[in-house]
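INFO  loader      accepted 1 record
INFO  loader      residues=161
INFO  predictor   begin
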Amino acid sequence: MDYLTIVTTGGTIDKIYFDDKSDFQIGAPQIGDILAALGVGFRFLVIPLLRKDSLHISDDDRDLIARTIEAQPGRHVLVTHGTDTMVETARVLTRIRDKVIVMTGALNPARFQGSDAVFNIGCAVGAVQTLGDGVYVAMNGRIWDPLKVRKNRDANRFESA
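INFO  predictor   done
INFO  writer      dumping tokens
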């Protein structure tokens, strides 16, 4: 892997909460700071494409994500995305050929103590370096085929569809 292209779309991983009523907005992408703080042994480029909760990502946004990934010269792409519609976006990205695309996110904001963000990012980074061409979802310590996974909102985790 020459370098890793990271496309950020928002979601819980980048949320900033302002008060006890849980008002929030999507902040700047956290992944670049996380990877830099960990001193990773590879180069990366962060493309901050969207700052949306995934419930607000539209079909036009999904097309923009796909076109942005297709336009990148690198083969290895990590996408941060909100978990509620991550699988829908991953399924759209399956149209892309000759790239390894791994999607990840967090169930708690990266800024929160005990967030799953760093763990999920680590799993995604390992996956994007070792898997063959295709689209994958890295959540809850597993790597999923987007055609065979769903988010269980009640249990707040991903599971086989």
